[in-house]
Amino acid sequence: MGSDVSLVAPVSIGDGAYVATGSVITEDVEPDALAIARERQIQKPGRAAAIRAARKEKR
Questions:
Q1: Does 47 reside within a domain?
Q2: Cα gap 18→38, rounded to integer Å
Q3: What is the pTM (predicted TM-score) of this model?
Q4: Does residue 55 belong to any structural domain of this protein?
């Protein structure tokens, strides 16, 4: 079991299974399986500036 893993009950982790660091496990993991449950990083160019501008307008 890697660090910073979240298990969303009810799930079971089979004997000898590995769970990758940072994964959010929502389904049972079979014995001796490797479970990796992370989304790919997505970047949205300019979005942070748009969020800041919208927050500034609300002030």
A1: no
A2: 14
A3: 0.66
A4: no
Tell me 50's DSSP state. Answer: H
The whole-number average pLDDT for the span 24-36 is 96
| Position 5 in a domain | yes
What type of residue sits at position 3?
S
pLDDT at residue number 15: 97
Task: Tell me whether residue 15 is in a domain.
Answer: yes
Listed residue (53, 37, 49) closest to 5, CA to CA:
37
The length of the chain in residues reads 59
What DSSP letter does each residue of 8-54 carry, written as one string? -SS--B-TT-EE-TT-EE-S-B-TT-EE---PPP---TTHHHHHHHH
